[in-house]
Design a protein that fits this description.
The protein has 344 residues and is an alpha+beta fold.
């Protein structure tokens, strides 16, 4: 049975009301709540009739939508859920729902080979896994990487809307290196996720910067400020020569060559550091020399540090010198002469 959006808003509103055990709800109260919700979400200000809400309650009570909501009336006036833990949001998917979702997944899977659909791959996999687990009543078999404790996720909505509606933001921000937070105007252009952290690229004065959302302390829309359009970078090509998110205007692409030992060559082959990666020399001992064309930044350096004893940077010389210096610092850190062992 097709359900229009306004009806779904009313069902959800009634459900939210009846889940509130600290208030008694008359039919008039439910009518007012549904009218307010429709005005807030859809801009409908003509209100709704008593009969409409009564029919909604009957529909929620019935099996037609699979809700079977235990809505009862007490004192001949007030509505409530007989089961205080009930909610229509907890209703399990019906067999028809599962069939519909399965059909939708099958349709979506047909587009996986198209480049413009590549970003939807994870979503399709999640849907497939959810449908399978619901049908078989088993736990999901796919566990996607996530960081639920990450700070700053609450800023995503305001930043997204500011980008879409071209609004200036006033941000209080403190980087890891700063002694105190700074407040400044920011023109947001692009949100980007990297390794479960979110960043926003935009303009601060006349410079392109990226901000980590977990370092934002406060954020608000600067209503009276004029938004400046993005003429600093092209989001579609900006990351072509980049590992991670750190790239300042003026940083140039460099050819990075590195040697990998035999044991770790398979890992580097199957998970390249960058899409430009290629093998330029194969050695008799099974090791290989690779080449990538990238901007040398902090994220790339950290990728290399993960193979500290199995990769040797060959060029450019500036990166060779930097890596050597960091390895010497690491050796000093682990040198036993730097530890004071208390004797007891």
């Amino acid at each position: 049975m097709p359900i229009n959006r306004n009806a779904l808003i009313r069902y959800k509103t009634i459900d939210t009301c009846l889940r509130n055990k600290y208030r008694r709800w008359t039919l008039e109260d439910l009518i007012d709540a549904c009218s307010d919700a429709l005005y807030e979400y859809e801009g409908i200000d003509k209100g709704i009739s008593k009969r409409t809400v009564q029919m909604d309650i009957q529909m929620m009570r019935s099996e037609k939508l699979g809700y079977n909501a235990p809505i009862v009336v007490y004192d001949n006036k007030y509505y409530m859920y007989e089961d205080e833990n009930y909610s229509i949001t907890n209703t399990p998917l019906s067999e028809q729902d599962l069939r519909t979702m399965s059909e939708a997944v099958e349709v979506l899977r047909q587009f996986k080979g198209f480049s413009y659909f590549s970003d939807m791959g994870d979503i399709v996999s999640r849907l497939e896994d959810h449908v399978t687990s619901a049908r078989q009543k088993t736990i999901p078999v796919i566990d996607f990487e996530k960081n639920e404790g990450l700070k700053g996720l609450n800023h995503l909505d305001i930043i997204y809307n500011a980008i879409v509606h071209k609004e200036v933001l006033r941000i209080k921000y403190r980087s890891f290196k700063a002694r105190s937070a700074n407040i400044f105007l920011f023109h947001p252009y692009l949100l980007k996720e990297y390794r479960n952290r979110w960043f926003v690229f935009g303009r601060k004065k006349n410079s392109l910067i990226n901000l980590a959302l977990d370092r934002i302390q406060t954020i608000e829309t600067a209503q009276k400020e004029r938004f400046v359009e993005n003429n600093l970078f092209d989001p579609e090509t900006f990351f072509d020569d980049l590992v991670g998110v750190t790239k300042n205007i003026g940083m140039k692409t460099e050819t990075v060559r590195f040697w990998v030992d035999k044991q770790n060559t398979p890992y580097v082959l199957t998970k390249p550091f960058h899409k430009s990666q290629k093998v330029i020399e194969e050695h008799d001992d099974g090791s290989k020399t690779f080449e990538i064309n990238v901007v040398v930044n902090l994220e790339l350096q950290r990728e290399f540090f993960g193979f500290v004893d199995s990769i040797k940077i060959l060029s450019p010389q500036s990166l060779v010198d930097f890596m050597g210096w960091k390895y010497r610092l690491a050796k000093e850190l682990y040198d036993e002469s730097h530890y004071i062992i208390d004797s007891f």
